[in-house]
Amino acid sequence: MNFFDEIKRFYLTFCFYVGVVMTLISPGTWIWKCFGERKGKVRLINRDLICDWKTLIDEGKSFQPLDQFTTTLSPFVPLFLIDNPRQWKSRRDLFRYGNPHLDQRIDQLTFDVPLPSHKGDYLWIIFPIVFRYSFELIFQRKISEDEFNRIYPGLVDINRMLKRISSRPNEIYRSNFYKEILRLINDKSDGFLFVQNENFYHLNEIDQVSSVGEDFLTTLSVQCTDLVCHLLILYSDYENEFRMNFDRCFDETLRLYPLTDIWVRQSKDKKNNWIGSLVQLNRNGWTKPDDFCPQRWSNKTIDHPPLLSWGFDIRRCPAQQIATKLTKKLFLSFVDPEHFWICKAKNFHHERTFPYGCQLWIDYGIKPRHAQQWIYPNQFQMKVKRWFHEKIRMIDQYEFN
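Given the sequence above, the corresponding structure tokens read:
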């Protein structure tokens, strides 16, 4: 490689990291803004950026865990996909075991919790609702209020760090979260998802708690909440399209706002490790890639680029099936009531990672004429706070390798 190629690699790497550090744009979205519909690979100093799905597929399947760098710049990835827990293979096998059981339990759930009338951030209104259903799926019973008060603050603390709203964990909340999950595991109640699975009890304590509390409870609660919020925001602008064909709108929502930002892999044959932006991979190669256009999914015979919102190959998020099913049922139950209406804030910019929350006005009855003009306050303070905590977390957790 000649001198000019090295200079180019340094320049592109510099642009990438400066954008990540200085802006509130997620790394995956920043890659899309910088490199757009470029094909092939972009050579960075330590990694190769894969820009399109055909180049990605040509890399072949990888049976290695995801690179730890995946979680550093991405708000959420199931922890057993990372080469960090020693028992990651066993934990993935547990997810394969639990998937069909959870799928059956979702069919048995009754979704009857309406969204309250509210004007403001709905993310933290929807999150506890999804958490309650996720708990019920895992333990096959409703959570008690005492259990909710001991577990939920720890789950909120995890999500706040994932959303970069805070930069340090609350040790008390996390400790209570851990102890309560461990108690529930040791109870071995008949409805517990793994009560009949001997392999689960062969794991050590911390992996048992992490598998239930993070790989399952956090995975379902965070992913489904985020996806419901994306759907509600788009529904506020495209209600007719959602009512005409919800499945197409669901796929188009995932295309525009994938739940994971960046996936990183060790490459084969001593090549550079590579990095892929799910935002770029889901928009590269589409006509009008930044537009919400559910009609693009109407003709199944067209050779569409694949939808990669849940990741790809052996490391695709295994929660795809159950999270999709749970999210669809929740969302449809939220928008089903008669005289339901929804409007997003006029000054709200929809981002994949919700750096400003999910600012909506939801109510029932006659929609006020001035609804389209409402704005949410404290936007600047929210931006500054989020930028500060995000950068502190990057430094504190050594997020640049």
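The chain has one domain: 3-396. Try to locate this feature in the token string yourself.
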